[in-house]
């Protein structure tokens, strides 16, 4: 601050009281300081230490018509004053006025810079909030959140320290150097913030790339699961078809085995029926030979058992004797009966003879699903 003290002689001549305000300077010079709330010390010091008006000197009076716009009254209005001293005082007052104007301009410039820095800090805070929201939306890891919070605290501390420096340096004499230092600090802070923002952007880009890779892996796994599901469905369909085919084959085999068993049973029944027929025919033949009394060779014993054995493969039963003997007109051979369907029928000539013997062969029933063929009987 500019000193408000003057030489003792000039103070005794022109300043009766140190605290009296001067009216020779324009009040508009201190209006920015009076309106400013950020620099109360500067405004109060300027108001208390800067003379704003001049009173009548103890040895003389101001001449009539003196205007407050005049920097200093003419020297001839004072009695007993040296012209050299008055010129020096006039020069010092002009220097003080210029210094006050410079200080006012400096304060105004500082206020503008402070507003600019406040806006810059507000923009940085908005950008920081946006980055925090963006990181939260992208679900950054815990380390990134801690880093952002730490960086935010550091930035807040730097902002508070800068505000304190601005308030404390507002009343310094060397305002230009302090403003330059403050500008350098703010520039360094801006560079630091820019670097931090770039680092955060790189971190966010890395998180985005990792998220993209994870999404690609998830899509690949989903497609692989879909392929596996399709293959499993195809395998299940093939297994079901094979199972159905196996069941049908097993059913067919079971049916064939059942048919074979039924055929075996039918063949067994046919063989039994054939043995019964052969036995009856042998019995009939024996009775025929015994009833007529004609000597002839009747098969008996082992020959008769061989004739009626189930191993006999044909129905050609020769009822005649081996030497050609027979009964009188009653010779019976295999041509005297026929086998039609399931009944055994005799020829008309033989039928008359069997009626006399009271033998009914119609009761012999050969149960078979197919027509009886002599070649099928083994």
From TrEMBL:
Keyword Coiled coil set for record: yes
Keywords recorded for this protein, A-Z: Coiled coil
Positions in coiled-coil regions: 93-127
Region (Disordered): 48-69
Matching InterPro entries: CCDC159/163
Domain of life: Eukaryota
Protein's UniProt keywords contain Coiled coil: yes
Protein name per Swiss-Prot or TrEMBL: Uncharacterized protein
Organism for this UniProt entry: Ridgeia piscesae
């Amino acid at each position: 601050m500019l000193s408000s003290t003057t030489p003792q002689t000039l103070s005794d001549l022109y300043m009766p009281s140190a605290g009296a305000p001067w009216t020779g300077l324009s009040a508009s010079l201190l209006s920015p300081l009076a309106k400013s709330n950020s620099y109360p010390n500067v405004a109060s010091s300027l108001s208390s230490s800067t003379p704003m008006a001049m009173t009548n000197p103890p040895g003389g009076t101001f001449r009539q018509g003196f205007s407050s716009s005049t920097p200093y009254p003419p020297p001839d209005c004072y009695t007993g004053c040296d012209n050299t001293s008055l010129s020096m005082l006039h020069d010092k007052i002009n220097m003080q006025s210029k210094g006050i104007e410079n200080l006012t301009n400096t304060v105004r410039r500082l206020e503008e810079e402070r507003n600019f820095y406040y806006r810059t800090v507000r923009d940085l805070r908005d950008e920081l909030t946006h980055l925090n929201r963006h990181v939260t939306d992208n679900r950054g890891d815990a380390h990134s959140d801690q880093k952002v919070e730490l960086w935010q605290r550091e930035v807040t501390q730097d902002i508070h320290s800068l505000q304190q420096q601005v308030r404390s340096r507002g009343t310094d004499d060397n305002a230009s150097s302090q403003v330059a230092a403050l500008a350098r600090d703010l520039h360094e802070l801006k560079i630091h913030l820019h670097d931090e923002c770039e680092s955060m952007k790189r971190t966010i880009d890395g998180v985005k790339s990792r998220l993209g890779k994870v999404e690609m892996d998830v899509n690949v796994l989903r497609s692989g699961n879909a392929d596996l599901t399709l293959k499993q469905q195809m395998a299940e369909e093939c297994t079901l078809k094979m199972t159905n085919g196996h069941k049908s084959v097993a059913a067919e085999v079971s049916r064939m085995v059942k048919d074979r068993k039924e055929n075996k049973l039918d063949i067994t029944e046919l063989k039994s029926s054939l043995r019964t027929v052969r036995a009856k025919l042998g019995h009939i033949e024996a009775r025929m030979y015994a009833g007529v009394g004609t000597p002839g060779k009747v098969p008996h014993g082992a020959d008769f058992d061989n004739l009626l054995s189930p191993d006999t493969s044909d129905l050609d039963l020769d009822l005649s004797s081996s030497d050609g003997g027979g009964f009188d007109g009653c010779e019976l051979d295999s041509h005297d009966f026929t086998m039609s369907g399931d009944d055994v029928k005799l020829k008309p000539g033989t039928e008359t003879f069997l009626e006399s013997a009271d033998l009914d062969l119609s009761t012999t029933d050969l149960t078979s699903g197919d027509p009886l063929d002599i070649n099928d009987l083994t």
